[in-house]
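ok here's Heparan sulfate 2-O-sulfotransferase 1, seq below lol
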Amino acid sequence: VRFVRNVTTWREMKPGFYHGHVAYLDFSKYGMKGKPMYINVVRDPIERLVSYYYFLRFGDDYRPGLRRRKQGDKKTFDECVSSGGSDCAPEKLWLQIPFFCGHHSECW
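and the structure came out like this:
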C-alpha cells in the first residue's frame, strides 16, 4: 500500500522511473485512478534459471559481504542437472511468472 501511494501521490519527483524486480500490481485494487506504465523485459527462462542458480552461490557486487543461502556450494549448474538437484529443477523456470501475474498466491 505504501508503494502504491508513493507512486501515485508523490509530486516532487515526477515523472518517475522505478526499476528492479517488481511484480505486477493492480493499482485500481487500492482505489487509485492513476496507474503506472509497466515495461517488463523477459530473459530467456533457461538463462534466468542458470543466473539465479549462480547468484545463490556467489551473489553480486551490490552487497558483496552478504552471506548467500548456497554460498560455498561449488557444484556447477550442469552437475546439478545431471544429479537431479532441486535448485535446477524445471519447476524453477516459473520464477518470471509473478512479474506478469502479480501478487496473487496462485502466481507464486
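fwiw The chain has a mean pLDDT of 81. kinda neat tbh
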